[in-house]
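tool=predict chain=A
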Amino acid sequence: MNLGSVCAKTVNDNTAIDLKVLHLAYPDRLTPPTAVYVVWTKADKTAPPQNIGALEVDANLTGRLKTVTSLRRFELFVTGEATGQAQ
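tool=predict ok
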C-alpha cells in the first residue's frame, strides 16, 4: 500500500486533508472481512480518535478522501470497519 496525503491551512485556519491511497485491498478481502475503510485523526496520545470519513476503494485499488479538520497537529490512520460511522 502506498499512502500520500497533503495537508494545507484553509482561509479560516482549519486544515484541509487530501488523502490518496494506492494498492489498497478491497475491505471485504481483509481477514476478518470489513465493509469500509475509515480515516481517523488523533490530536495526541491521550485524545480519542475522531472518525473523519470513509475511504472508498475504486476498481484500480485507489482510495481517496478530501475533508477538513479543525486540528492543526494530528496523527492520521486508516482502519477497516463494519460501518463508515464507526466510533
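The chain has a mean pLDDT of 89. Residues 5 and 19 are 4 Å apart (CA to CA).
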